[in-house]
Automatic annotation (TrEMBL):
SMART domains: AAA (SM00382), REC (SM00448). Keywords: DNA-binding. It comes from Mucilaginibacter gotjawali. This is DNA-binding NtrC family response regulator. GO terms for molecular function: ATP binding; sequence-specific DNA binding. PANTHER family: SIGMA L-DEPENDENT TRANSCRIPTIONAL REGULATOR YQIR-RELATED (PTHR32071:SF121), TRANSCRIPTIONAL REGULATORY PROTEIN (PTHR32071). One of its GO terms (biological process) is regulation of DNA-templated transcription.
Length: 449
């Protein structure tokens, strides 16, 4: 049974062939090279998990060669062969990144378990690399679809700040993809191998949110039968994303400010502060500056959160991306329902691009999912779109709605979603991706109770 590839680099042909034969009998696919240059060439052409190299080569010192190998294939493990009296070279090679060394002339059986251990470690590292790449494909900047100037500029900003530990405040309307951007920033940051924890601050009551964020001690309140770790502890070493930050109660704003300033907080019922190392990303669709002026949001917290602001563009401001996004969602939902689509009609795309998209990308996603479910043909056409997109409703006389008033657009969208859910407010809140409490507040504000 073939285990995997390894490369032997040695200028002594007899020893090179002997080692190759021993390892081939163990099931390894063995490549050989007589010097460092040829060895590096083979390494560039193929993935080789383990390299066995002489410390003294005609064109390379084994220590320098180890550094070269690790620069080309960081996950590859190197075993150094040393002659008697040159063990110091083997030790130096290990300090340069080699897995281990073995002295020439030792019992050749020692090489087999050593290679096996190196192979196990290297294959694990290659597997980790593969998983990290898949993770980056799933959560990184590459999955942010769009070629318009509005979105490419925002992505450039996010990529720059991702490399730092700076707190970021993501602004923009509901449905513009703030959580996707937060995940991409985390994935491109030095913290990417630690946890990314997202929490919607509007989805909990004040008391429950405090417990969720900071945890509690057993007996601190009725029902607290055991200690609980909060989300800040869960995110220790990584990133926490606080969505709908504008919904935070004043008392929780003060606790969050302490975390930003000292990376410490008190659990409910605890007297000893808990220390964490967490990067904070936050998002809101509110105008926090206005909230500060109304004393609805702490000014000191606002200034700490808004060290670096990124405003995500509304979908109506990036019309060039609508077709790209629609095609992506068409293929995505097509796979889920086992339907294959060849495209969309020009009229279908025209209707999409002419619409105002008050619900932004989230609304587009829902519209395409609906069209995919209803479609009987391989091409999506305008008949699959919601009625209001096919024939926009005229505004009745005396109606105060303005096509340019954001609050009116939001009110209309909420009404459409409530119509869609037949008045089910919990389901409407889920589709709008806001907390039920936030929906009730908006219904009250718009006189829709």
């Amino acid at each position: 049974m073939q285990k995997d590839k390894l490369l032997i680099i040695d200028d002594e042909e007899r020893l090179r062939n002997l080692l190759a034969r021993i390892l081939q009998l163990e099931g390894y696919d063995v490549l050989v090279a007589a010097n460092g240059k040829d060895g590096l060439k083979k390494l560039q052409q193929e993935n080789v998990p383990v390299v066995i190299s002489d410390v003294k080569l005609p064109d390379y010192n084994g220590i320098d060669l180890t550094l070269q190998i690790k620069s080309i294939r960081p996950a590859t493990e190197v075993i150094v062969l040393t002659a008697f009296g040159t063990i110091n070279d083997g030790v130096k090679a290990i300090k340069s990144g080699a897995f281990d060394y073995i002295t020439k002339g030792d019992d050749n059986e020692k090489i087999i378990p050593l290679v096996s251990k190196a192979m196990d470690k290297a294959l694990l590292q290659y597997r980790v690399q593969e998983l990290e790449q898949k993770l980056n494909d799933k959560f990184g900047f590459d999955r942010l679809i769009g070629k318009s100037a509005a979105v490419t500029e925002v992505i450039k900003l996010a990529q720059k700040v991702a490399l730092t530990d700076t707190t970021v405040l993501l602004l923009g309307e509901t449905g513009t993809g703030k959580e996707l951007f937060a995940e991409a920033i985390h994935q491109a940051s030095p913290r990417h191998n630690k946890a990314f924890v997202a929490v919607n601050c509007s989805a909990f009551t004040k008391e429950l949110l405090e417990s969720e964020l900071f945890g509690h001690k057993a007996g601190s309140f009725t029902g607290a039968v055991k200690d609980k770790k909060g989300l800040f502890e869960e995110a220790n070493g990584g990133t926490i994303f606080l969505d709908e930050i504008g919904e935070l109660d004043h008392e929780l704003q003060a606790k969050l400010l302490r975390v930003l300033e000292s990376q410490q907080f008190l659990k409910i019922g605890d007297t000893k502060p808990t220390q964490v190392n967490v990067r904070i990303l936050a998002a809101t669709n509110r105008n926090l500056q206005e909230e500060v002026s109304k004393e609805g949001f702490r000014s000191d917290l606002y200034y700490r959160l808004s060290v670096f602001q990124i405003t995500l563009p509304a979908l109506r401001d990036r019309k060039k991306d609508i077709k790209l996004l629609a095609e992506y969602f068409m293929n995505y939902f097509g796979l889920k329902v086992k339907k294959q689509f060849t495209g969309m009609t020009d009229k279908f795309v025209e209707k999409l691009e002419a619409y105002g998209w008050p619900g932004n990308i989230r609304e587009l996603k829902n519209v395409i999912e609906r069209a995919v479910i209803l479609a009987d043909e391989a091409v999506l056409d305008e008949s699959l779109l919601p009625y209001e997109m096919q024939e926009p409703s005229p505004v009745k006389a005396g109606n105060s709605l303005s096509a340019f008033d954001l609050a009116s657009i939001e009110k209309l969208h909420i009404q459409r979603v409530l119509n869609h859910t037949h008045g089910n407010r919990a389901e409407a809140a889920r589709l709008l991706n806001i907390g039920v409490a936030t929906l009730y507040r908006k219904l009250k504000d718009y006189g829709m109770e």
